C-alpha cells in the first residue's frame, strides 16, 4: 500500500545561521531547500526544522566528544557568549519557519539525539521522512541511519543537502543512501507529488 502524503514530513536539518554561514558560499545553493519547503507546504506535508543548541553553561557537552567538546572553550562565558550562541542557532532567514512549524532542538548529530522529534512524529502518525540539511555526512547521514533503524520510510533530497566535501556528498547520495532510502532531486520529488492531488 503506498504511503499517503499526509503520513510524511519534510525535515529541514541544521539550517541554522552558524551552519549555513560555514557551509554555504553561494546563496543560490539554498534554492533547492526553498523549493522543497514550498512544495511540502503546498501539499500539506508538515515541515519540521531541526537545530543543534545547548543550554547556557553547556551541561550537555562532554569533553570526550570530538565534535562538540571544544564548543564551551570557543564560545566563552557570560551574557555576551549566551547572546552570541542564541543568535547562531536561529534558523537562517532563507528558510524561515512559519509560526505553526515546529523547531526541534537536538544536542548531538542525529535529529533524534536528545530531541523530542520522535514524539512529534508519533503524535502526527508520520511514518515517512523526507530528509534535507547540512551536512550530508553529518546530520543527514546520522538521521538517515537512525530513522532507518526505527523503520521510517525515507527519501533524501540530494540537491537539498550540502557537504563541505563534494566527493563525500556524491558517494553518500549515490552509493550509501540508496541502500536505505530513495534519493531524488527536489524537482523529482516535487514531480512525484503532482500525481497525488
TrEMBL record:
It comes from the Bacteria. CDD domains: cysteine_hydrolases. The keyword Hydrolase applies. InterPro entries: Isochorismatase-like_dom, Isochorismatase-like_hydrls, Isochorismatase-like_sf. Keywords: Hydrolase. Residues 8-187 form the Isochorismatase-like domain. SUPFAM superfamilies: Isochorismatase-like hydrolases. PANTHER family: ISOCHORISMATASE FAMILY PROTEIN YECD, PEROXYUREIDOACRYLATE/UREIDOACRYLATE AMIDOHYDROLASE-RELATED. Belongs to the isochorismatase family. This is Nicotinamidase-related amidase. It comes from Paenibacillus xylanexedens.
Amino acid at each position: 500500500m503506498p504511503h499517503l502524503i499526509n503520513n510524511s514530513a519534510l525535515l529541514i536539518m541544521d539550517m541554522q545561521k552558524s551552519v549555513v554561514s560555514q557551509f554555504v558560499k553561494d546563496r543560490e545553493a539554498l534554492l533547492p531547500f526553498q523549493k522543497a519547503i514550498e512544495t511540502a507546504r503546498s501539499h500539506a506535508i508538515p515541515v519540521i526544522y531541526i537545530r543543534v543548541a545547548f543550554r547556557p553553561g553547556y551541561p550537555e557537552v562532554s569533553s570526550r566528544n570530538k565534535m562538540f567538546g571544544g564548543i564551551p572553550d570557543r564560545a566563552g562565558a557570560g551574557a555576551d557568549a549566551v547572546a552570541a550562541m542564541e543568535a547562531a542557532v536561529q534558523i537562517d532567514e532563507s528558510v524561515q519557519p512559519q509560526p505553526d512549524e515546529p523547531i526541534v532542538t537536538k544536542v548531538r548529530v542525529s535529529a533524534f539525539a536528545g530531541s523530542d522529534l520522535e514524539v512529534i512524529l508519533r503524535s502526527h502518525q508520520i511514518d515517512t521522512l523526507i530528509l534535507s540539511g547540512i551536512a550530508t555526512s553529518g546530520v543527514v547521514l546520522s538521521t538517515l541511519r537512525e530513522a532507518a533503524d526505527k523503520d521510517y520510510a525515507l527519501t533524501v533530497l540530494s540537491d537539498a543537502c550540502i557537504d563541505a566535501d563534494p566527493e563525500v556528498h556524491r558517494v553518500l547520495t549515490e552509493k550509501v543512501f540508496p541502500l536505505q532510502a530513495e534519493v531524488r532531486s527536489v524537482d523529482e520529488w516535487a514531480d512525484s507529488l503532482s500525481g497525488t492531488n
